[in-house]
Amino acid sequence: MAATEATVMEKIVSLCKRRGFVFQSSEIYGGLGSVWDYGPLGVALKKNVKDRWWRAMVQARDDIEGLDAAILMHPKVWEASGHVAGFTDPLVDCRTCKSRFRADKIQESNCPQKPSKRPGEHTTCDLTEPRLFNLMFKTFMGPVEEQAAVVFLRPETAQGIYVNYLNVLQASRQKVPFGIAQIGKAFRNEITPGNFIFRTREFEQMEMQFFVEPGTDQEWFERWRQWRMQWHRDLGLTESRLRWHEHGEGELAHYAKAAYDIEYEFPFGWNEIEGVHNRTDFDLQRHQEHSGKKLEWFDQASGKRFLPYIVETSAGADRVTLTVLVDAYREEIVEGETRVVLGFHPTVAPIKAAVLPLMKKEGMPEVADQLYRALRARVPAFYDDSGAIGRRYRRQDEAGTPFCFTVDSETMADRTVTVRERDSMQQERISIDQVPAWVTERLAGSAAG
Amino acid sequence: MAATEATVMEKIVSLCKRRGFVFQSSEIYGGLGSVWDYGPLGVALKKNVKDRWWRAMVQARDDIEGLDAAILMHPKVWEASGHVAGFTDPLVDCRTCKSRFRADKIQESNCPQKPSKRPGEHTTCDLTEPRLFNLMFKTFMGPVEEQAAVVFLRPETAQGIYVNYLNVLQASRQKVPFGIAQIGKAFRNEITPGNFIFRTREFEQMEMQFFVEPGTDQEWFERWRQWRMQWHRDLGLTESRLRWHEHGEGELAHYAKAAYDIEYEFPFGWNEIEGVHNRTDFDLQRHQEHSGKKLEWFDQASGKRFLPYIVETSAGADRVTLTVLVDAYREEIVEGETRVVLGFHPTVAPIKAAVLPLMKKEGMPEVADQLYRALRARVPAFYDDSGAIGRRYRRQDEAGTPFCFTVDSETMADRTVTVRERDSMQQERISIDQVPAWVTERLAGSAAG
Description:
The structure is a homodimer. Chain A is α+β, with helices and mostly antiparallel strands and about 450 residues long. Chain A has helices at about 5-20, 40-60, 75-80, 85, 160-165, 165-170, 215-235, 280-290, 315-330, 365-375, 390-400, 410-415, 435-449, and strands at about 20-25, 35-40, 65, 90-95, 100, 130-135, 140, 150, 180-185, 200-210, 240-245, 260-265, 270-280, 295-300, 305, 310-315, 330-335, 335-340, 355, 380-385, 405, 415-420, 425-430. In chain A, helix 10 (about 365-375) links the parallel strand 19 and strand 20. The two termini of chain A are about 35 Å apart.
């Protein structure tokens, strides 16, 4: 990682703490490695991302149903899925420095004792042979730690969808092709988490599994690729920082016929934020075998009976939130000073509008408070009356608030306020009574984009 | 439990599966004990409950901030909170039948071998002395199961708020008194879970911790009691099935100065759905001691420095969802047939409106589809064109849909549709063009209640 790139991430992590987007977990106890908590602005930002996904995937479509399966599942699910046998990383230990590395990533790792070197590049690092470690978190259900009670924290939400697919199909009266969408936490005991909230051991997925007739799967796969890329563009992400990565033959998972990642160019390089996979009938085959339950679909219209193929779209809620943060972050020199801006798309911005009385006198606070209350009844709004007005604008720029409304002495005379737009810093005056409708209109307009 | 009461719960469980509110986890593998998955209608219902709580607690108030702390936390948090030492149940084993019971609930348990008897009431049950079992789920972070890597799945979300309180205070520029609200999963290794989604090992909490100056705590405690009870009433719950239960001296937790539960009368008896607690400064004291970090607040206006007292409101998202389901469930005899209705308050109903073309011909499906699309752009709506109209009404009654709109031959002549109201079954005709506004108005009206 180049020095300037490290600096950008450091600045974002620091801004996230200062402004209450993301805090390190258990910070007063020295923190817990690679575990993060969302603060007031972060929880609002992430909720906006998730709600936007849920609206696009479930509420705006007739052919997708929602689901919320539990994190704890029957252990046989993970035998059938292949996770018990195959969800492993090869690890090596350094006998000298006691560090642990992924054997397949050792060329990219540094030796903690000599950070300029790769492990094994100098004599003090004496590496063991690789051993396989399962990445699933294991726990015990019921009060006794015995083998029978071992359960896993799910490493992906997808399996919760597969084992419920017939129940959903019957209860919802859907027909194949149809999909099931879910947002929920998953856990992976990664040996090398990192890059802030990009790779964490506890994370939240937004997954959709679309069940189709075999033979129509590639068609649906292409459709979903287009829809999902468009969804990310509609978040306002910079076009040139998004790209497709096709899994080559060596990369393809054993269950996949075709797989593409949507990658984003982070300061630490191009990385996956969503995968679109043609999983064939691998998963339903396995669950059919392991459970002994028929999972076929009988199509009354065509008289065909088949095991559906599955097209999966799997995005990380934390990764998309990080992408939105990174893409929005910019520094500008304005009148000789550095202005830090989070240029969020208005529909994901945690605060949509701020109301700022220029002075704490001459009736301005009362008028501003009325405006604030009228706004807050419609959208998340913020009231700030402390400090110089320029400083207050900067604070809203850092929080990513698209619109600021300033109540000043002119307001008291003619009931107009200054609207200040975050990105252009342009100001105009509008009637105070029009403000709520003005904001709602701009949010509705941007949501359609 | 009386037979008729068992029957009501059985009917609700069965309806929940049939209509896609709640499925048993991993059902195709025989299920996982007391773990449940939310289906399409259930996830919508629970999301409505959670969004309503979030709106009331965070978005509609200036003095409460949102938080989303991770499930995994530093193990020292649970030493400080007292959970490592004290979050235990006393268990006894029966040496004969190998069953396990909570020693303090043994008078209410039945012997699996002779279900008419209590354990110990007959000679085949030979009970061990009680032993203490910790209720926290334990797992291992990092790939090796060694003591240093033991972490717990949080048994409550509250501690995530306490350890972040200074970070939130600083980032949000709030002042005491203020609150932090959080919705998230917690895990308890209950020995006797049960009553459907009432008591489960994995569950979701809606917790708010309000930080106040010592001496003002009882005042705030009383305020929060009133506000929280009103919130449940506003969900449309039957007034006579809600009551307060005050914790007597023997019941009070060691950290609590005063505690009241909001109880609901379920078919299986009166049970807690939310607790309101005056926790004093117990939690912040403990974290201050264990972390070595000062957690005091300095109030600039008064010049006072103090460790805030905490008033907690702690509700179960699954319990409230169950309460809404149970309270809404009713059977009526209509024209000699049983009508099953989920009489949800319109703001929590998963589907707000259904559109039903009377026949699949004469242009009715096209007109109905247009109306459906106009509705769905505003609210969750459903389209159903199959089966007799009476049957379709019954299906919507079971799903709890407040309003049905039927497109018939009159519609084709004069562009009016029949509105059929779920509870009264009254029908009236309105112009098809007015329908979306008509629905939005009724939802807005009921939300204010």
